[in-house]
Amino acid sequence: MPHNNKHITNRENHEIEFRNVSFKYPGAEQYTIKNVSLKIPVGKKLAIVGLNGAGKTTFIKLLMRLYDPPEGEILLDGVNIKEYDYKEYLKLFSVVFQDFKLLSFTIKENISLADSETTDGDKILDVLKDAGLSERIKELEYGIETAVSKKFDEKGIEFSGGESQKLAIARALYKDAPIVILDEATAALDPISEYEIYSKFDTLVGDKTSIFISHRLSSCRFCDCIAVFHNGEIIQYGKHEELLKDENSKYAELWNAQAQYYN
Ligand SMILES: Nc1ncnc2c1ncn2[C@@H]1O[C@H](COP(=O)(O)OP(=O)(O)OP(=O)(O)O)[C@@H](O)[C@H]1O
């Protein structure tokens, strides 16, 4: 019997598994996720790629327990995720979504999501550096105490889309949770910033279990495995080189469509 309050004792290493998961949004006729099974072993990096509407973000929403799949099971360390205490469960994830929200508070509070007393100022500066924002913050008279938005403070700052995304990445780095999820987390970054972030990923993510969703296939190559989603199903699964071998595959089609811009 699920009791929904199982405690998470292992703080570091986590394995995620989807077993025959299918899901329809409430009121929808079509399945958005169809019989998806995959395992992300402890410390491994999974990339999910696929066209718009393929079901990638929905997969993450199910993992984050925003919806409860009526068919199949999602397991964390072999236990159905429904059984864990919800708050404890969410603490395991550092997530950057495509549509993250910045709050009308200071830069520091936007990163720590806590009041100033408990915040480690040095760590804030470190994560801002890793996210590629320190130079920008140094220009500000009030530094990390600057308000994000001019709504309540005329000395506040309105960040650009890419700068806001860097702040969201800094927030995820500050949380330093054992599982990292980046869902189109670098889509608004210019190519140089994106390259800088990706080249630091190995250090940033380290040996944490992680999931990356990106339309830029070149930035998924470093992952241990790539799952290609199509109409809610996993149609290909493997390493970059293996997936490319099948020239008629969806992955090859997506890769070649982008490669022509690089060549
Ligand atoms: N809240 C919702 N209610 C009903 N349908 C939804 C909802 N959210 C998403 N969908 C539908 O589910 C399908 C999959 O969406 P999802 O966001 O998972 O795709 P995606 O692969 O992440 O796409 P993208 O690359 O555009 O971000 C889409 O057809 C979308 O319209």
How does this model look, in words?
- The protein is α/β, with parallel strands linked by helices and 263 residues long.
- The protein folds into two domains: 16-99 and 179-262, Rossmann fold (3-Layer(aba) Sandwich); 103-158, no CATH class.
- 32% of the residues lie in helices and 21% in strands.
- It contains nine helices and ten strands.
- A six-stranded mixed sheet has the order 6-7-8-3-9-10. Strands 2-1-4-5 form a four-stranded antiparallel sheet, covered by helices on one side.
- The mean pLDDT is 89.
- Adenosine-5'-triphosphate binds at residues 25, 28, 32, 50, 52-58.
Which secondary structure elements does this structure contain, and how are they paired or packed?
Elements lengths: L15 E8 L9 E8 L4 E5 L6 H8 L7 E6 L2 E2 L5 H5 L2 E4 L10 H6 L8 H10 L3 H5 L22 H15 L3 E5 L7 H15 L3 E5 L11 E6 L2 E6 L1 H6 L4 H13 L1
Parallel strand pairs: 3-8, 3-9, 6-7, 7-8
Antiparallel strand pairs: 1-2, 1-4, 4-5, 9-10
Bound molecules: adenosine-5'-triphosphate.
As a percent range, the share of helical residues equals 25-40%
Q: Can you tell me the CATH superfamily of the largest domain? A: P-loop containing nucleotide triphosphate hydrolases
SS-based class = alpha/beta
Q: What ligands does this structure carry? A: adenosine-5'-triphosphate
**Tally of strands:** 10
Q: What is the helix/strand order?
A: EEEHEEHEHHHHEHEEEHH
User: What's the arrangement of strands in the largest beta sheet?
Assistant: 6-7-8-3-9-10
Query: What is the radius of gyration?
Result: 19 Å
- pLDDT under 50 segments (min length 5)? none
Mean pLDDT, rounded to whole units? 89
Question: What would the CATH topology of the largest domain be?
Answer: Rossmann fold
CATH-scheme architecture of the largest domain: 3-Layer(aba) Sandwich
